[in-house]
Amino acid sequence: MEFPDMRYVGLEHIEPHSMKLLKYGHAREARSSAVRFSKGDILYGKMRPYLNKVWVAEFDGLCSAEFLVFKKQDGLNTQFLGSRLNSEDFVSFANRQVSGERPRVDFEKLSHFQILLPPLSEQERIVNKLSAAFSKVDRAETAARRAKKRLGRYRGAVLDAAVSGELSRTWREADWNAKKGKSKTPETPLQNLLNIRRHLWEIAELERLQKTRKTAKDNKSKSRYSEPVSPDTENITELPREWSWVSLDQVFSSLRNGISQAPRETDGLPILRISAVRALSVELKDCRYLPVSTAEKYKDYALQEGDLLFTRYNGSRDLAGVCGRVPSINQTVVYPDKLIRGIPVKISAQTSSFVAIAANSGASRRYIEAHLFTTAGQWGISGRNLKCTPLPFPPAPEQAYIVREVLSRLSAADRLQASLELQLIRATATRQSLLHEAFSGHLLPQDPNDEPASGLLRNIRAAREKAAQNPRGKRMPKSKPKSKLMLRPLLDILREHGEPMTPEQLFRDSGYQQEFEDNECRQEVVDRFYEELRQQVGPKGPVLEKRPDRNTVLLQVKP
């Protein structure tokens, strides 16, 4: 590349809606063709125009070819034009000009949008007025965002105090003093948990045998019980009195991956998206759909209130392995194979909520983060590591106290969060209101001494005609051009290879890796790879998935 150290701006470097540059890279990092721009030019993101990525260049550099570059010219204040492109009515107009999964807009379509063009001196006055007004709005937004960050730290502190025992320390000491002098030694939480888990399994097993009209023989029937794995307690801190370390496998009566069938319907059986699960919460409306005819087939995957869902895979490391609790549910909703469902052993009404709190914080979350692995740009957690995850487990009464305290404090935090979100919404509305007034001619009074608009338009046309006579600049090619590699079916690659392949090898050899490197919307590429892979892997699919150890996944065609 001719200018490897030149500053480079990609779509990811510009903040949506704000006309702010978050950061920049260098030309050597560009993975596709680039365009030269100069200080004062306007960069307009033509892909997904609803993201409203507009920036008035503050330096010379290179930018992604996914930008339209509006060159600075006499008679037109680029800050004025940039703000006009940033206004809500233009965003709506641009968004109506595109369609498809990767929508882009071109200049020809945008050129039909009509704007009111004031004299240059009035443009400058409008820009100055907007700048002064926006600075106040920016300060309010900055204060709200800082408060949100502090609120996030407060939430983390509440959860850490809950799982360390500090939140319930006073309650625990009072309870301990009330028990003094009693000779009976109570069971530990772990002993109680395992006894209840075994008892519930025996009840379920007896019901199963009765349905099949078989007679239960105590010894033979009970021998089928599978003991849960113990927690991995290496480097684990000491717990408060009467607490126990348990594993997630011990806490759950069932831990199971979801459905591998790809949802393609516009209506039918709701199946959650992976984005539905966040720490402590599950958004049941965040769904896609399977055919209604599959409802009976997938009835064992129907979610119930109190079930816990873990994200098995996610593009964000912070969201991989997080746990959400299913709220009250009044319809059949199932879950996909990128999620893992745990059905908690029902020790008390609060056990499910406490496990969700503990699994997202403290030693449990640190353990999960330490055992995350990456596959083709996705962070993941294996079911085996999830089962071994250590969880601090107090007696049921203390669990109930902790859950009440946590929910009370987080509820107050939620109310404050909603207030801060409202402030940010109002700030955005204020900004758009100012833009509307500015570009409709109502923000400032007109000056009769300004140059008439007709003269301004003549000057702009003359400048355009002169610029048209000059040779146009060329796009800068990417630093290391690569030959076009077409995507190949994953099943064909596995058959040709013969030997087991890791997902990373399959991602590379099938052509997805090159598309990933050449594409600025990389998560889409990864999602399409896993969508195709899910169609091949499974009980009825032609591809077998093996896990020789906790960090390795191998794929091969079934014999």
Which structural traits does this protein have?
about 550 residues, Adenine-n6-DNA-methyltransferase TaqI, Chain A, domain 2, 4 domains, alpha+beta, four-stranded mixed sheet, single chain, 17 helices, six-stranded mixed sheet
Give the biggest sheet.
6 strands, mixed
- The overall pLDDT, averaged over residues, is 87
CATH class of the largest domain, anyone?
Answer: Alpha Beta
Q: Find the structural class using helix and strand composition.
A: alpha+beta
**Quantity of strands, as a count:** 22
Q: Low-confidence parts, pLDDT < 50 over ≥5 residues?
A: 479-484
At CATH's second level, what is the architecture of the largest domain? Alpha-Beta Complex
Main β-sheet, spatial strand arrangement = 9-17-14-16-12-11
Strand content: 15-25%
Relevant CATH superfamily of the largest domain: DNA methylase specificity domains
Proportion of residues in helical segments? 40-55%
- The CATH topology of the largest domain is given as Adenine-n6-DNA-methyltransferase TaqI, Chain A, domain 2
Rg on CA atoms, Å: 30 Å
The rough form would be described as: globular
Total number of domains: 4
Query: Kindly, what is the distance between the CA atoms of the first and last residues, rounded to a whole number of angstroms?
Result: 49 Å
Per DSSP, the total helix count is 17
Describe the protein's architecture and organization:
This protein is α+β, with helices and mostly antiparallel strands. The chain has four domains: 1-116 and 476-481, Adenine-n6-DNA-methyltransferase TaqI, Chain A, domain 2; 120-186 and 405-450; 230-394, DNA methylase specificity domains (Adenine-n6-DNA-methyltransferase TaqI, Chain A, domain 2); 490-557, no CATH class. The protein has helices spanning 78-86, 88-95, 107-110, 120-164, 169-179, 189-211, 218-222, 248-251, 351-359, 362-370, 383-388, 396-439, 453-468, 490-497, 503-509, 512-518, 522-536, and strands at residues 7-9, 25-26, 34-37, 42-45, 54-56, 61-64, 67-70, 244-247, 252-257, 269-272, 277-278, 280-282, 287-290, 308-311, 313-314, 323-325, 339-344, 373-375, 378-380, 390-393, 543-549, 552-557. The strands form seven sheets. It has a six-stranded mixed sheet with strand order 9-17-14-16-12-11. Strands 2-1-6-3 form a four-stranded mixed sheet, with no helix packed on it.
